Amino acid sequence: MSWSTTNPALGEARHNDAFTAAQSAARQARERLGATPSWALAFGGGRLDPTALLTGLRSVLGEIPIVGGSAAGLITAQGAKLTGFECGLLLFAEPLVPGAILSETQAGRCDARATGQRLGAALRATDAEASTILLLYDSVHATSPLQLHIGSYLVNGFREGLNGLEAQLIGAGTLGELGMETSVVFDGREARRHSVVAVSMPKGLRSHLRITHGCYPVSDFMTITRVEEERILELDGRPALSVVAERLAISEAELARMVPPVLALALGEKQGDPFAPFADANYNNRLVFAADAEDGALILCEADFAVGSRVQLMDIEPQSMLDSVREQTDSLLVELGEARPLFGLYIDCAGRSMAFSGTDEDESAPVRTLIGERCPLLGFFSGVEIAPVRDCARPLDWTGVMAVFTMAADSD
Question: Where is the FIST C-domain domain (predicted)?
Fold first, then answer.
């Protein structure tokens, strides 16, 4: 299998017309590929019409499967951009053809687990051989009031449907813009809302993963004593809002006014030994994006915490975020050794962007410079990130997921 025929090509462009942006990015990738394309992974800013964007891509690439969706911004070796007018894609030639591309519609938030089960079972039935599965769904369920699709229900159902099929699961909940108003998925054929797509990545590819957080515990353990889906009602038998306001030494009214979103507040559940030294990889963190002052509730982005879960307040600390990215990027490159990377994928929480977090430094810089100089790199800003934590795939918040793909033979 020759290097030139397996290396995917990156295309990127920015324009206020979706068709023009997509056509320009597709032409760039097509010229760089130098072979007949078989499928594409593509993302477009939320200010671009998704149907027109797909039309522009197909005007150059033909009727190949196009998977991806909306993105709050794009990340490549050239920089991190969040104007909403970006279009970027990775274009693949044979033999890097997915084992399967399957999609399902989410009828509603309560249907997410069943949707995942159906999709996982359908993927398992294809007998596709893959070491990595890419799962994409649109994050926004409704905007008034804001409701998100619950990724934990979907991912748990998907794992159940796979029924023990061994593959690394990564992915994202797509998001069109920082205001969390739109989200779209490209399912291989069209742009769809309330949809989820699963890709059995090409046989022979191996993914090397690292997860970065940048959250640090700033409290002792608290026990969730009352919860309704993503609403944390009580901690240690008291209203959650009261407990957290006390810990932060501010009034409940002040805390309630800070949301949505509370940029410096998350709840983290430590996995494994609760007394082990701190490590990013051992925490499942959940952003607090709203509060209900009347019920004293904290509203999270996910619903995977339960009565009895022991959580800590997590400080979203910019310097820790930057340090984590540098350390994990270096660690990933050490793991690669002499293996030749084919391409990189960086799934990054939109809240970690400079535009949203207020940092003076782009946290994706180590990924862009150290990975982007070795292989084509496509990253995008998402609403939710999906990756394994202690060998169990789950949706994540305030996270960067780095994946570098090599041919399995190159990694041995």
Answer: 240-389
Q: 386 and 244: one domain? A: no
Whether residues 235 and 175 share a domain: the answer is no
Residues 227 and 164 in one domain: no
> Domain check: are 43 and 170 in the same one?
yes
How many independent structural domains does the chain possess? Answer: 2
Q: Are residues 241 and 348 located together in one domain of the fold?
A: no
Q: Is 323 exposed, middle or buried (0-12, 13-18, 19+ CB in 10 A)?
A: middle
Please answer whether residues 370 and 326 qualify as being in contact, where contact means their C-beta atoms are separated by less than 8 angstroms: no
Q: What is the mean pLDDT of residues 171-197?
A: 93
* Residues 209 and 215: beta-carbon distance below 8 Å: no
Residue 160: phi, psi to the nearest 5? Answer: -60, -40
- Backbone conformation region of residue 13, classed left if phi is above 0, alpha if psi is from -120 to 50, else beta: beta
83 and 206 housed in the same domain? yes
Encode pLDDT of 203-260 as tens digits.
889 999 999 888 889 899 999 999 999 999 999 999 999 999 998 888 888 887 775 5
**174: number of Cβ within 10 Å:** 29
In 10 A of CB 122, how many CB atoms? 15
Q: Are 175 and 70 in contact (CB under 8 A)?
A: yes
Counting every residue written for the chain, the total comes to: 412
Which tens digit of pLDDT belongs to each residue from 358-386? Answer: 677 899 999 999 999 999 999 999 999 99
Write out the residue range of the structural domain in which residue 294 sits. Answer: 215-316
What are the backbone angles phi and psi of residue 373, rounded to the nearest 5°? -80, -10
Q: Which residues contact 30 (CB under 8 A, 6 or more apart)?
A: 9, 11, 37, 60, 61, 91
My answer on whether 203 and 248 are in the same domain is no
Residue 153 has pLDDT above 60, yes or no: yes
Instruction: Decide which of 287, 316, 345 is a domain's last residue.
Output: 316
β-pair partners for 75? 80, 379
The pLDDT of residue 358 is 66
